[in-house]
Design goal:
Number of helices: 8
Largest sheet: 3 strands, antiparallel
Order of helices and strands: EEHHHHEEEHHHH
Radius of gyration: 36 Å
Helix content: 55-70%
Mean pLDDT: 87
Low-confidence stretches: none
Length: 192
């Protein structure tokens, strides 16, 4: 049988070396010292690798300037003229330009399964009834396009569409409100 020399200096058969190390106080002490030394070497190695690792400082600054609802800057006539075609997408595109591009996202739907919407005003976020607000926003947007930006003078197609829309049934008007709601959900920033 082959023999191995234990830490204490005794010759022990390979099959019994494990049992000897557990019982022999000198071998136990040597094993602990050896393990302690291995741990210290590993710590030193890790410290060296940390010191040699390049320092990467990453600063993530997220600045979101939200303009209070109804205080958005005035759009240019060129911008308004560009969003009038196709006419059936003009109102959602106008809401996007005014409230998300210019307004910084001052409208949000916090939970699509609930019938509420939030509007950013001077004092912070105000919660309103979603369906009622979307209906009001649709009418307000169409009036602004026509009265403030003279959309009827810029596009005959828009003028004809707006007249047909105002005289349409509730289902057609609801469809436009839904388009605006989906546009809001697609463009709002998720801030937790």
């Amino acid at each position: 049988m082959s023999k191995v020399t234990a830490s204490c200096g005794r010759q022990i058969s390979k099959s019994n070396i494990s049992k000897h190390r557990k019982r022999c106080s000198k071998c136990k002490t040597d094993q602990l010292e050896q393990r302690h030394e291995e741990i210290l070497n590993e710590i030193a190695s890790l410290k060296r690798s940390i010191e040699n690792t390049p320092r990467v400082v990453q600063n993530n600054v997220f600045v979101c300037n939200i303009i209070p609802f109804s205080q958005e800057p005035v759009l240019s006539q060129e911008d308004v003229a560009n969003l009038l075609e196709p006419v059936d997408e003009s109102v959602p595109r106008y809401v996007k330009l005014k409230h998300f591009v210019q307004g910084g996202g001052n409208i949000r739907i916090p939970n699509k399964s609930q019938k509420r919407i939030q509007i950013f005003e001077k004092d912070g976020w105000i919660t309103k009834d979603r369906d009622e607000f979307l209906s009001d926003l649709t009418g307000l947007s169409m009036n602004e396009l026509d009265e403030k930006y003279f959309a009827s003078n810029l596009s005959n197609n828009w003028k004809n569409w707006a007249m047909r829309f105002r005289n349409s049934d509730k289902q057609t008007q609801q469809k436009l409100c839904s388009q605006i709601m989906y546009m809001i959900m697609d463009n709002q920033i998720d801030v937790k």
